[in-house]
Amino acid sequence: MMDRPFDLDPLFRPLSILPGVGPRNAKLLEKLAGGPKVLDLLWHMPVDFIDRRFSGGVAQAQNGQVVTLTLSVDKHSPAKRKGLPTRVTCHDDTGAISLVFFHAKKDWLLKQLPEGNQIVVSGRVEYFQGQPQIVHPDAIGKTGDRSMIERIEPVYPLTQGITNKVLNKVLSRALSIVPELPEWLDTAHKSRNTWPGWKDAVLSLHAPQSDADLLPLSPARARLAYDELLANQLTLILVREHQRAIEGRSYAQSTVLRDKVMASLPFSLTGAQQRSLREIDEDMQKPLRMLRLLQGDVGSGKTIVACLAMLNAVEAGHQAALMAPTEILARQHAHSLAPFLAAAGVRTVTLTGRDKGKTRDVLLSQIQNGAAQIIIGTHAIFQRDVLYHDLGLAVIDEQHRFGVQQRLELASKNHGIDLLVMTATPIPRTLALTAYGDLDVSRLDEKPPGRKPIETLLLPVDKIDTLTERLRVKIREGHRIYWVCPLVEESDLVDFAAAEQRYDILRQSFGERVGLIHGRMKPAEKDAVMDQFISGDLDILVSTTVIEVGVNVPEATIMVIEEAERFGLAQLHQLRGRVGRGAEQSYCFLLYSGPLGETAKERLSTLRETEDGFVIAEKDLELRGSGDVLGVRQSGMAEFRLADLSAHSALLSAARDDAKLIVSKDSGLVSARGKALRTLLYLFERDQAIEYFKSG
Ligand code: ADP
Ligand code: MG
Questions:
Q1: Which of 377, 438, 514, 554 is most buried per CB count within 10 Å?
Q2: In this structure, are residues 71 and 90 in contact, taking their beta carbons and an 8 Å threshold?
Q3: Measured between alpha carbons, how far is 657 from 652 in angstroms, rounded to an integer?
Q4: For the domain 256-444, what is the CATH code?
Q5: Residue 2, pLDDT score
Q6: Fold held by 455-610
Q7: How far is the CA of 298 from the centre of ligand 2 (A)?
Q8: Which of 18, 36, 20, 66 minimizes the C-alpha distance to 166?
Q9: pLDDT tens digit string along 406-420?
């Protein structure tokens, strides 16, 4: 980045500039550190340490203890046979000890440990046939090196080809070029927490002195995590501030179209739907832009809320667009909204990647000349050549498939339009802040009435035949079944093989009315199979996790999940949410191949006990840590290097308050602290925010 403060330069240099790092090591270190920069390596945190401080002599060294000894070298006894070690006997004032080397080169050893000289070694002492020895000392040096060797050595996660010794050496070079940076933390906040300055925090991160220093809330780690969270929150709030500053539209409050649609609805809205809609209406009536998240569990009825919101825009003479993450979902939205929109006489088009040539041209011209009032589709609807007559509102469904970056891009490309983002992922409050901190939130925390709770059963896989017989009866009664195959390796290839195998077996016992859908099929093929299942031509739909998002088939009442113990909690919840959408009793069978570990047990029993997505999400965060919660990894929306939200959630709320206050007082980041905060944003490469203060 061009305008990055000079201070930061050493941190952004490639690892290869560090002395002792060759091209081969640079590659390995880059892999280990998760990035090519010096900074990436600095963020590679130790997980343990070895205490090499030891003031005793040979006689005081306990079996198994790591010691540092100053010794006189007495004699080299080379290996007598292949496979036997070389022994080097040594002593100090208190006793004798041997150093043991397998496959050692004689000359090298003699040079390292000249007979008659004093040396310093460090390593783990073992007693062998009553005598102390050290096999392959970790460090050998001259007497003058003692202070360098006798220290607390941090222990890092490693990769093949990089030893802890090498890593320590490289890190000490990296640490030697860590710059002083201006302090961006609020002084009072910093001293209240007894946090070190940034440079000191980095240095102590790599110099743990006790177990306490390895904990996520140690002063150094907490400070660095806070920095990262502050950069995240400051970015979101700056972006929000700038987005809101762009004038939005203020819609009239007439509701002719909405009244028509409401009259044609076969149900009345839930309290939560009404409340969310009121919040949306208020946003849309204000001249500010709407930037709102509609968060609601699977089946909570987000689609109709989106539809009614879109009618606000249409009623005021503008267009509205609804974007879904997949072809199937886009078509399903179009299909399920069609009767309502038709009742109100609203002209709707559907545009997906499948529309090509003439068809596409016709659709594009309808969008451009305003003939199309509501546009439903996949991301195809926001491609560059899609020109809108007058877009007023964009609704993005199932946000977690898009990620925060794409959302920000979309928002900045379409100046002034209102934005409604919908997600079915019940994200814990803490995570929601990191991902959606720039949005206002409406929650659909109430399900439409009349749904029976889903009966969830755990079943060892060897009971699969009993299950099959039970399913046969259910099919005869008209039920439809989802059968999800395990996510073995998060690899399409392997998942696909498992699903295909199950499909073959089920075909043998259930015949033709079994279908298969998986991620390697073309979109059109997927849609075709899905359509067969929706229309009832198939009784059983075998799949990998491609059905996870949004699909609505009310007649499907049974969900079978194989090797359920392999799935994450939130993901199981999403899958289960595919059933229980009609008036019939629904079932979810979780098949497992035992014995189950503690976490797996807890996961599955949580699922059996509750259907509340928010409860499940909190539990998921607790059991797995923030990085693993469904959707987080895929979308890259909350990937932190230093912060771990299962440990640092209190820091997140503090960072949020801090960021709000900063922006309310100094949104241009021009005060002294503001300038330091710019450095922070550069440090974490928050380009979205940087753009704003650079331009204004
Ligand atoms: P999701 O929030 O998962 O997107 P949908 O919008 O697909 O949920 O709604 C799930 C089902 O519930 C649909 O069949 C929809 O018509 C129905 N539905 C929505 N709101 C209500 C309501 N207030 N009462 C009864 N059924 C409703
Ligand atoms: Mg939906």
A1: 377
A2: yes
A3: 9
A4: 3.40.50.300
A5: 58
A6: Rossmann fold (3.40.50)
A7: 7
A8: 20
A9: 666 666 666 678 999
Asked whether 270 lines ligand 1 (CB < 6 A), one says: yes
Nearest CA to ligand 1 atom 27: 448
- pLDDT value at position 409? 65
For residues 563 and 593, the answer to whether their CB atoms sit within 8 Å is yes
0.90 exceeded by pTM: no
Atom of ligand 1 lying closest to residue 552 CA = 7
Among protein residues, the one with the nearest Cα to ligand 1's atom 24 is 448
Distance 397 CA to ligand 1 centre (A): 14
The CB density around residue 617, as the number of other CB atoms within 10 Å, is: 23
Nearest to 637 by CA among 338, 352, 421: 421
Picking from 631, 633, 669, the residue whose alpha carbon sits closest to that of residue 230 is 669
Q: Which ligand is nearest to the CA of 444?
A: 1
Return contacts of 55-59, CB within 8 angstroms, 24+ apart.
Answer: 56/94, 57/92, 57/93, 57/94, 57/95, 58/91, 58/92, 58/94, 58/95, 58/96, 58/97, 58/132, 59/94, 59/95
Q: How close is the Cα of 420 to the center of ligand 2, in Å?
A: 13
**Separation of CA 298 and ligand 1 centre (Å):** 9
Residue in this structure with the two tokens 């990894």, named with its chain if needed = 633
Cα–Cα distance for residue pair 679/669, rounded to 1 Å: 10
SS3 517: strand
Q: How confident is the model at residue 629 (pLDDT cuts 50, 70, 90)?
A: very low
Tokens of 320: 């509205």
Q: Where, residue-wise, is CATH 2.40.50.140 in the chain?
A: 49-155
According to DSSP, the β-strands at 152-155 and 139-142 are unpaired
Instruction: Please give the Cα distance from 56 to 627 (Å, whole number).
Output: 45
Ligand 1 geometric centre to CA of 381 (Å): 24
Ligand that lies nearest to the alpha carbon of residue 265, given by its number in the listed order: 1
Residues carrying CATH 3.40.50.300, the chain: 256-444, 455-610
Q: Which ligand is nearest to the CA of 266?
A: 1
| Pairing of the two strands 540-543 and 556-561 | unpaired
Q: Specify the CATH number for 49-155; select among 1.10.645.10, 2.60.120.10, 2.60.120.330, 2.40.50.140.
A: 2.40.50.140
Tell me: the pLDDT tens digits for 155-165?
999 999 999 98
- Mutation probe of ligand 1 site: the residue of 276, 303, 400, 579 with most atoms within 8 A of C-beta: 303
